[in-house]
Known about the structure:
By secondary structure, the protein is of the alpha/beta class.
Amino acid sequence: xxxxxxxxxxxxxxxxxxxxxxxxxxxxxxxxxxxxxxxxxxxxxxxxxxxxxxxxxxxxxxxxxxxxxxxxxxxxxxxxxxxxxxxxxxxxxxxxxxxxxxxxxxxxxxxxxxxxxxxxxxxxxxxxxxxxxxxxxxxxxxxxxxxxxxxxxxxxxxxxxxxxxxxxxxxxxxxxxxxxxxxxxxxxxxxxxxxxxxxxxxxxxxxxxxxxxxxxxxxxxxxxxxxxxxxxxxxxxxxxxxxxxxxxxxxxxxxxxxxxxxxxxxxxxxxxxxxxxxxxxxxxxxxxxxxxxxxxxxxxxxxxxxxxxxxxxxxxxxxxxxxxxxxxxxxxxxxxxxxxxxxxxxxxxxxxxxxxxxxxxxxxxxxxxxxxxxxxxxxxxxxxxxxxxxxxxxxxxxxxxxxxxxxxxxxxxxxxxxxxxxxxxxxxxxxxxxxxxxxxxxxxxxxxxxxxxxxxxxxxxxxxxxxxxxxxxxxxxxxxxxxxxxxxxxxxxxxxxxxxxxxxxxxxxxxxxxxxxxxxxxxxxxxxxxxxxxxxxxxxxxxxxxxxxxxxxxxxxxxxxxxxxxxxxx
Length: 570
C-alpha cells in the first residue's frame, strides 16, 4: 500500500504510469447503436425521504478544505495541466466527527471545456482494492468526449487504498509453504482455515485504526463530504463492479443528494450484505450468495457453445469445446500440465480462464490456449510423454499477464491477504476489512467448505474459487460492522438511477442489476448483451446512453438493450 505521506506528484505519477486503473477499459472500438435502442426520456423525480440519518450525520461535519496541487508529472502537457490532487482529512469515525481524522487521497482531471462545465463526476473502478484516483484517465476516455468536456472527473481512493491510509494487522502470521489459492479437498480446507485463524488473531492483537472503519458506508460518507467540498449540491457518479455497491450504498444513505448515478457490472446489494434471511443470511458466505461463480460458469459455457456454432475456421477449439475444456482440467488435476517451473495447478487453469472472461477480447485467446493444450495431450498420448508444457502455447504469456494484472489491481478474487516485503510481520487485510464488515456470514469456517462443494454442482470450476475468497469472514471476521449499512435497500432517489448489466458477465451476473432495478424506485435497467466484465467503454450504444444521462439526466426506456455488434469469434 502507498503511504499517504508521500508527495502528491510522486503518488499520482506512479499510479498513472503503472496503469493501476481498474476493470475500466481504455479507448474502445466503436460499436454500432442497436436498432432496438429506445429514445432517451427525462425521469420524473422519485420520491426520496425527507432526510436520512446519514444525510444529517454528515451535514454536521465541517467541510474539508481541498488544497489542489499539480500531480501529473510524466503525462502529456495537455493532461498534466488539468490533473491536480489533494489530501483532505475526514473523520475516522463519523459518530465522533471531532475525534481522530483520517486522510484521503483525491485526484481530479479538470473538464476539457471549463466554460461549459456542469460539475464533478465521481468514479470508482471496483475491488475492493481498486484505486479510484488512478482510474480517472481511463474513465474520462471510456465515457467519451461529451462527458469529459462537461465534467471534472474525480477519484477518491477509498479507505485503505492507494493514498488513503492502510488497513493492516500486525503479528506473526506466517504463510504456509503450500497454501493453495483455494481449497479442493478437506486437507487444503483445514490448512486455509488454520491460516485464517492466525490472521484473525493477529488482527485481534494489533491493527491499524482503519481496519474497524473501512466499510462501504464509511467510504460513501467520505464521498458525500468530498462532494460538498468540490461545491456540487448533488452527486454525479459512475461506479463499476464493487463501485456499483458503493453507488447503491450512497444512493440508499443519501437519496436526496443524487443528481445522476450510474452503476455498471452490478453487485446484488442484498446478497452482499445479508442475503435472504430465510434461506441464506448467516448460513451462506456472501461470496457464494453473489452468484459470481455462476456468472463465470455461464459466460464460459456460452462462449464454448458459440465456438462450436461458428466452427474451426473462426474458433480453434470448435468441436466439443466444452469436452476439451474438461479434458484440460482433468489433466491439471493429475499434474500433467507444466510451465517449466513445475506443475500448473487446477486452480491456476481456472484462474487463467476467469481472467480471460473479464474481456471479450480475451476469450478467443483462451479458446486457442485450450486447443493448444488438447493438441499437446494428443501428442503425449502418442509419444508416452506424461507432461504437457503450457509454455508451448503462444497464448499462455498473454493470458497469464491478463490474470496477474487483475490480481494486482485487486479486481477479482482479491488475495486473502498479502505480506508487504518491507514489513513481513504486517498483513494487509483491505479486502476483508471491507467485505467482512459489510456482510453477514457464517461463524463456522467449514461452512465455506460445504458451500464450495455445493457450488461444484451449480457453478462448476468457478463457484469454489469465488466462495473461498471470503473465508476470513468466519468466526468473528475482520473489522467492525458498527458503521456498516446492511439494508433495507428499497428507496426512492432525487434522480432515478441508471443500472447497467451484462448478459455474460463473469463476476457480476445480470441478476445483480435486476435486483438493484427492483430496489431503487423508478431506476432504469440498460442491458449490454455481450461478454466481458462491465459495459463501460464498449462504445456506441452504451457510451451514448450513459453519456446522455450523465450530461442531461435523460434516461433510456427501462429494458433497453445494447447488443454486441461484432461476433465473439471472428
